[in-house]
């Protein structure tokens, strides 16, 4: 038994046993705690370097975290700057692409317009070429037909006559010439120009030594050239002699005639290589003309005809001038009479103006006259002396 504070506890009491067991357990726990504390102190002393290392490691980790945050902020800034730069680059690229697209569009439109214009011009040129080709074909046909015409002497003569007729009709009035005029010897001239005496009518005959000229041009050797020149000379001389004998008649025609060559080439060859033959024609009083020189000669003859007509009409012109002089004198007299009439009318107008001014002054006086100031009933009483005067 145990007495505590005046109370007795029995050792075999379950409560006492439980209390003793709890106390023992508590003491054991306290002992364990003491041991644990001691061991914890030793462990704390042992882990203190580790804790310092862990603290340093934590600081480093914190620094790394701060650096990571800074790096993250820098990366964010870089990403934002990169995004802005990329946006600007994209915008610039879009603008550049738009300008390039617009320039390409304009260039393509301009190229299309130039191409269309070039195609249009090419089409026009092709049409021109087609028309030229058609004209060439037509001209080729005309040349062939002209060769057919010129291969025959009769048709060749008709060709020269037609060309001569066309030139004469253009250069002279209709009453100054006659085609196929018959002379007193029975010969017919292709054209007879009616010039006054002197020199008198002059005959023009068309000749075309084409065969001799073509042989001359086609000669390949010296012998052929000499033979062709001799034939050409003989043909031209025969034409000149025939014209001189047939169309130069004493007292009927002029003392000379014209030989019309309807080819400028034949005319040029004649004057370039056969000058002696031309001078021989002058001796026969036959002058050779081409279409060009024939027109010039006919214009000269037209001036001669005009001068002759003026001389023929000189008497009539003098009569007309005398009548014109009388008309001018009568016109001068009538102008003088009209001037007198105008002078009298001017004087009448001046007198009318004077009368109108006087009437106007009288009207102004009547307009300013006060009838209330009239005194008496006598006629003329109160009338101003100016109004009482008799009318002038």
Would you write up a description of this structure?
With 392 residues, this protein is α/β, with parallel strands linked by helices. It has a domain at 155-320. Helices cover 74% and strands 8% of the residues. It has 9 helices and 7 strands; from the N terminus they run E-E-H-H-E-E-E-H-H-E-H-H-E-H-H-H. It has helices at residues 14-150, 153-171, 210-218, 222-247, 264-273, 275-283, 291-312, 314-367, 385-388, and strands at 2-4, 7-9, 177-182, 188-193, 202-206, 257-260, 286-289. The strands form 2 sheets. Strands 3-4-5-6-7 form a 5-stranded mixed β-sheet. Strands 1-2 form a two-stranded antiparallel sheet. Strand 3 and strand 4 (188-193) form a beta hairpin. Helix 2 packs across helix 7 and helix 3 runs antiparallel to helix 4. The longest helix has 137 residues, at 14-150. It is elongated. It starts with a strand and ends with a helix. Mean pLDDT is 76; it is low at 371-383 and 386-392.
